[in-house]
Design a protein that fits this description.
Layout lengths: L3 E6 L6 H16 L3 E6 L23 H10 L3 E4 L1 H6 L11 E3 L2 H8 L4 E5 L1
Parallel strand pairs: 1-2, 1-5, 2-3, 3-4
Length: 121
C-alpha cells in the first residue's frame, strides 16, 4: 500500500468547491498518517498566501481556512510551483506555514522510490 499521497491542484478560488474537495482529500490522507503533499500550480499558488484560502464554498462545506489549518496541523505540506508563482508577481517571503517553493524535480524527489496515491484537481 502506498504511504504517500500527492494532491495536484491547479484551481484557485475561481472554483472554491474544487479547492474544498482537494483539501478534503488531502486532510483525510494527512490525518490518517500518510505523508501528504499538495502540489499547487496555476491559480492554486495563491492559496499558499496568508488570507487567501478563506470562505465557505457551499452550504454544508467546511470553511477553507479550517481545512488549511487541519491539513498543516496533520503534517501536510504544500509545494508551490515557482514558475506559476513568479509569473503572478507574488512574494515568496509571504508563504504560509507548511508551504515551500518547488517544481517538478522536488516533487519527484519527495516521492522518491515510494509508491504514491495521486489525485488531480
Amino acid at each position: 500500500m502506498a504511504s504517500k499521497a500527492v494532491v495536484s491542484l491547479t484551481t484557485g478560488l475561481e472554483d472554491p468547491e474544487k479547492v474544498t474537495v482537494a483539501h478534503l482529500v488531502a486532510v483525510g490522507a494527512a490525518e490518517q498518517g500518510r505523508d501528504t503533499l499538495m502540489f499547487l500550480t496555476k491559480e492554486a499558488v495563491r492559496l499558499a498566501l496568508p488570507g487567501v484560502a478563506t470562505g465557505v464554498a457551499c452550504a454544508g462545506c467546511p470553511p477553507l481556512a479550517t481545512l488549511v489549518q487541519r491539513y498543516v496541523g496533520a503534517g501536510g505540506r504544500y509545494l508551490v510551483c515557482p514558475i506559476c508563482f513568479e509569473a503572478k508577481g507574488l512574494d515568496k517571503s509571504d508563504l504560509i506555514g507548511g508551504a515551500e517553493m518547488g517544481g517538478t524535480v522536488p516533487l519527484w524527489q519527495w516521492i522518491g522510490d515510494d509508491n504514491a496515491v495521486t489525485f488531480s484537481y
